[in-house]
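Data card: per-record layout.
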Amino acid sequence: MMAMSCKDGGKLGNMDNGKYVRYTPEQVEALERLYHECPKPSSIRRKQLIRETLILSNIEPKQIKVWFQNRRCREKQRKESSRLQAVNRKVTAMNKLLMEENDRLQKQVSQLVCENGYFRQHTQSATLATKDASCESMVTSGQHHATHQHPPRDASPAGLLSIAEETLTEFLSKATGTAVEWVQMPGMKPGPDSIGIVAISHGCTGVAARACGLVGLDPTRVVEILKDRPSWLRDCRAVDVLNVLPTANGGTVELLYMQLYAPTTLAPARDFWLLRYTSVLEDGSLVVCERSLKNTQNGLSMPPVQHFVRAEMLPSGYLIRPCEGGGSIIRIVDHMDLEPWSVPEVLRPLYESSTVLAQKTTMAALRQLRQISQEVSQTNITGWSRRPAALRALSQRLSRGFNEALNGFTDEGWSTIGNDGMDDVTILVNSSPDKLIGLNLSFGNGFPAISNTVLCAKASMLLQVRISNIFFDTATDETLSLNCYYIPSVRW
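The structure for this 492-residue chain is written out next.
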């Protein structure tokens, strides 16, 4: 029998005399062209190729068959090798990420041990000392969660750059340091196939979440996606860039106004007045960090907006590091004070839970990046059922339509025409042109409709449920009240 080799495309075995025949470069080129047209030709097709291609006329069909077998074998080996190299790169990067996380945890343990010794020493001395002002100052000076009041800042370019640099420092201390005590989010086990390493805050002001993960996208593309918050954050109504200031290091300082939809009819929506700083670190990492603008003077400010509660974003952002072999290692930190005092007490767990923030915002950013990365790597997908970008856009549109109807803002064209007051059923209508584009505005008999208006009836009902039943990655016994909505939309 003939010995076949998958490594040599220029040789083939002759099954009659056991000799090897070497193809000419022209013959190999012709066969490669035919392979890309049809990698597995039938016997009839192989004979036809010999008749139609003069340069292959002296080759027998049996030899052509062997060449195609070897070529398919090499292609399979190449794909498997590429796959294994990609898996190896991913595992290597994840291992590096886990080592950095282990480093951070060790520093946090050391810091907690030092603080514990400090508190123990001063607690013992405080029991013997008088409770004068100097003693109280000495005891409280070492508290980990002490609040620092920053002096008012000038909102000139130099003042804003000072705020930006301070924001960068505080964000990095949360992303890679021990400024916040992070605990692993229940149910989120790190690994090569997981969405990433997800953690939530413990005992800090407001709610905070952090995620570390790998994505197969260039860092500049990651920054572009994450800055477009309305495209991936379902609750984001709008982000307006009001001013852009270039910095000496090639970065930018932007002033933003952002609005978030309310998740329930029982609470007002939230808005933010933000500074966003984009820069490149010395190691080549890209960083985008944000914080609410407060305590500024002699400069731009955003007055309160009707129907919105001004929430605060504490230093948050994204740290994107290029990964060896392509892709990026990303760290995300979300830290907010959503002003839970402004909602009914039964809804406050939604605004005071770091787990909710992680599920709705932090993990949503990672999922968006992973989905786009998969779409980029699958360039030849056809058919509606296999077009994730189109399905993602449809999902975003449906979610936005629901949020618009739920919040019923007048500047989106909604107006209330009825509310029974007893069962909390509200009737709204919307006649804006963008709600009617593409609709068939006529009755079945062909006559035009009398009124081209979208009618929405919405009602809310409180249900007592467990958080773990909604956010499947949590494990908690807390209960809260959620609104369930029935919002049918009809045209009349």
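Known properties of this structure: Residues 1-9, 11-18, 130-149, 465-492 have pLDDT under 50 and may be disordered. The chain has three domains: 23-119, 157-377, 408-436+452-459.

See the next section for split statistics.
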